[in-house]
Design a protein that fits this description.
Elements: H1 3-34, H2 41-49, H3 61-72, H4 82-113, H5 129-132, H6 137-163
C-alpha cells in the first residue's frame, strides 16, 4: 500500500490507543473518586486529577488519520462499505461523550480534589479540604458512565475495522 498508508494507519491506531486508553484510565480513577472514604483513595484520585488529561484529545485524531489512510492507500471504494460509515458514527458518539461528559466531569473532579487554597489572612479560619469544593460523587459517576460509553465505542469500532463487515 505504501509508506504513507502505513504511517497514517500507525497514527490512527496510536491516537486510538492513547486517546481511548487515557479515557479508560480516567474512568478507573473516577471510580476511585466515588469512594473517597477508602484508604489512600483521595491521594490516588487527587494525583490523577491534579493536571488536565490532555491525552484524551487524541481520540479526535482517530477519524482524521483513518480517513487519510484510506485516501493515501487508494482505498476510495472502502468508503462505500458500511463498516466505514458505522465506524465514523461510533467515533462521533465517543467524541461527543468525551467533549460533553468526560472532560467536564474531569474538570469538576480536579476542582473538587484540589487542595484548598492557603488562607490569605493569618488567623482567619480556612475551609477544610472536604468543604473547599462540591462533593465529587456526581462528577465521578458521570465520568464512569461516559468512560464506559467510550470503552464500548472503542470495542465496537475496533471490531468494525478488524472484521470490516
Amino acid at each position: 500500500m505504501g509508506a504513507a498508508f502505513a504511517v497514517l494507519v500507525a497514527l490512527h491506531v496510536g491516537c486510538a490507543l492513547v486517546g481511548f486508553g487515557s479515557v479508560a484510565l480516567s474512568g478507573v480513577y473516577g471510580g476511585i473518586a466515588r469512594r473517597l472514604d477508602r484508604p489512600d483513595a483521595r491521594d490516588d484520585a487527587s494525583r490523577w486529577f491534579a493536571k488536565p488529561n490532555r491525552a484524551k484529545w487524541a481520540v479526535l485524531g482517530v477519524p482524521v488519520f483513518g480517513v487519510a489512510a484510506l485516501l493515501a492507500g487508494h482505498r476510495l471504494a472502502d468508503f462505500a462499505h458500511p463498516w466505514v460509515g458505522s465506524a465514523l458514527a461510533v467515533w462521533a458518539v465517543a467524541a461527543t461523550v468525551v467533549i460533553h461528559v468526560v472532560a467536564p466531569a474531569e474538570r469538576h473532579l480536579r476542582a473538587a480534589l484540589a487542595p484548598p487554597p492557603a488562607c490569605s489572612t493569618p488567623g482567619a479560619p480556612c475551609l477544610p479540604a472536604a468543604l473547599a469544593a462540591p462533593a465529587p460523587a456526581g462528577a465521578a459517576t458521570r465520568l464512569l458512565v461516559g468512560t464506559a460509553v467510550c470503552d464500548v465505542a472503542f470495542a465496537v469500532a475496533l471490531g468494525l475495522m478488524v472484521w470490516q463487515p
